[in-house]
Amino acid sequence: MYLEDEPPITAGRGIWGFPMKHGMPRLSVKKDLVGYRLRDVVGRGAWEGDTRLHLIPHVNCRVADLPVRRIRRGRHQIVDFTLPYGDVLHNYLA
């Protein structure tokens, strides 16, 4: 998950454990130091099968510019859950 929009950054989405930093999409593996566990998870439906991918280019979200080499399968889930505040996993300042 990346954030490339100023209002959510300043609105304080860090209380849920998501980074409050400006980001740009990149193809790499990264981890944050904040953990969270979803609560009150209720699955409403789940489907898997052949699929298509349609990405719409947008000036603030350049995910559509990333190369898609092959689409194997698709999954769709409808889930209700509570997103609690995040927990600091390691405090580097301590």
What does this protein structure show overall?
The protein is mainly β and 94 residues long. It has one domain (6-88). It is 6% helix and 26% strand. The strands form two sheets. The chain has a two-stranded antiparallel ribbon with strand order 1-4. The protein has a two-stranded antiparallel sheet with strand order 2-3. The radius of gyration is 17 Å and the shape is extended.
Largest sheet: 2 strands, antiparallel
Q: Strand tally, please?
A: 4
**In terms of structural class, how would the helical and strand content be classed?**
mainly beta
What is the terminal-to-terminal distance?
A: 27 Å
Task: Give the % helix.
Answer: under 10%
Largest sheet strand order: 1-4
Rounded Rg? 17 Å
Shape: extended
Average pLDDT taken over every residue? 78
Bin the strand percentage: 25-35%
Alpha plus pi helix count: 1
Number of domains: 1
Instruction: List SSEs in N-to-C order.
Output: HEEEE
Low-confidence stretches: none
Please render the helix and strand layout as text.
Blueprint: H1 6-11, E1 34-35, E2 39-49, E3 74-82, E4 87-88
Can you give me a brief rundown of this structure?
The chain has one helix and four strands; from the N terminus they run αββββ. It is mainly β and 94 residues long. It has one domain.
Top keywords for this entry?
single chain; about 25% strand; two-stranded antiparallel ribbon; mainly beta; about 90 residues
